[in-house]
Write a structure and sequence with these properties.
Number of helices: 4
Shape: globular
Order of helices and strands: EHHEEEHEHEE
Strand order of the largest sheet: 1-2-3-4-5-7-6
Distance between the termini: 25 Å
Structural class: alpha+beta
Number of strands: 7
Strand content: 25-35%
Length: 161
């Protein structure tokens, strides 16, 4: 039995999710110089939560007991999405495990959940990784380095069913 439970985003998680997205964008994405207010209001709420509400993308949250431990944002690329680089492909768009929960199996459980949900709709997945640690994690999850870089400067990885 896993110590991790994965739940789909619900509105009661909004404050937590917005603040964790801000932390993730500032700490894990490293190169962002976007002001906090823009990250919070226009990107977290204006893009990701709006996409969640309209069914363009989905947010899954990993829990350790009742404590949120991380999140994944995933979608099937379509023209309705603001990021659509491979129409019809599943995309794990954002992925964050809080530092205190890393290297404990949480990431693999959350990644597996997002993959399963996407494989219900498509047989091809991709994502981008911004550093060597992230790349090694996704390779350990069965993704393959395509040798290509995305427009955001990150390396593209893919997986097929």
């Amino acid at each position: 039995m896993s110590a991790w439970e994965i739940r789909e985003y619900t509105p009661d998680l909004k404050s937590w999710w917005v603040e964790q997205f801000l932390r993730y964008a500032k700490d894990d994405l490293q190169d962002t110089e976007i002001p906090d207010e823009i990250l919070r209001e226009k990107i977290a709420k204006g893009v990701f939560l709006k996409n969640q509400e309209t069914g363009v993308s989905f947010i899954a949250v990993a829990f350790s007991g009742e404590v949120p431990a991380g999140f994944a944002v995933y979608q099937v690329d379509s023209p309705e999405a603001d990021w659509c680089k491979r129409p019809g492909w599943g995309l794990i768009r954002e992925f964050c495990i809080l530092p205190e929960f890393r290297r404990k199996g949480c990431g693999k459980v959350l990644a597996s959940y997002a993959e399963q949900k996407l494989f219900e709709k498509t047989d091809r997945l991709y994502l981008t990784a911004h550093d060597e640690g992230a790349a090694a994690f996704w390779i350990s999850c069965g993704f393959t380095d395509t040798g290509e870089d995305a427009s955001n400067g990150c390396r593209i990885f893919e997986k097929r069913r």
